[in-house]
Amino acid sequence: MAGNYTLTIIKPDAFGAGKAGKIIALLEEKGFRIRAARTMRMSTEQAGHFYEVHRARPFYGELVEFMTSGACMPLVLEKADAVSALRDAIGATDPADAAAGTVRKLYAESKGRNAIHASDSDDNAAREARFFFAECEWVTVG
Ligand code: CMP
Question: What are phi and psi for residue 117, nearest 5 degrees?
Fold first, then answer.
């Protein structure tokens, strides 16, 4: 059964442009509830570790550089079938392909600077939430 939690990051482009409030409002209007939130600037080591799965990809260096370029905002969100619901709400990786009304259509510039991250599976949501929120009830009891 699909889980009720997922992890998102409002990335440095959107956070730095002052769009965090609008993005959170959009997600809350779609029924997501915030279970944990923080602001931080990721270190190169943290970003490298978080995106470990993409290490062999040609955009890995660019991705780590971008994610460490400024503050970001990780959040744990709750909703039925959260992983799939959040991926629908944020839209395609490339904003040019994102559906109208999605976070990336509204706020992303490009495939690289794409405003927001969302976990792609329940297992990764748990792993990614633990990465940012060791103290979060969901990740410690689950
Ligand atoms: P995200 O959901 O954070 O997961 C991996 C990220 O890699 C993705 O969003 C994009 O920001 C980034 N990414 C994927 N493809 C490319 C690409 N072709 N060029 C630059 N960045 C990319």
Answer: -115, 150
Alpha-carbon distance of 89 to 16, in angstroms, equals 21
pTM (2 decimals)?
0.95
- In this structure, which residue's CA is closest to atom 21 in ligand 1? 112
Q: Would you call 54 a catalytic residue per the annotation?
A: no
CB 67 within 8 A of CB 45: no
Entry field: residues in the chain? 142
Query: pLDDT tens digits, the chain, 142 residues: what are they?
Result: 689 999 999 999 999 999 999 999 999 999 999 999 999 999 999 999 999 999 999 999 999 999 999 999 999 999 999 999 999 999 999 999 999 999 999 999 999 999 999 999 999 999 999 999 987 777 654 4
**Residue whose CA is at the smallest distance from ligand 1 atom 1:** 117
The full set of domains in the chain, from first to last, is 5-42+72-133 (3.30.70.141)
CA 75 to chain CA centroid, Å, is: 7
Coil, helix or strand at residue 77: strand
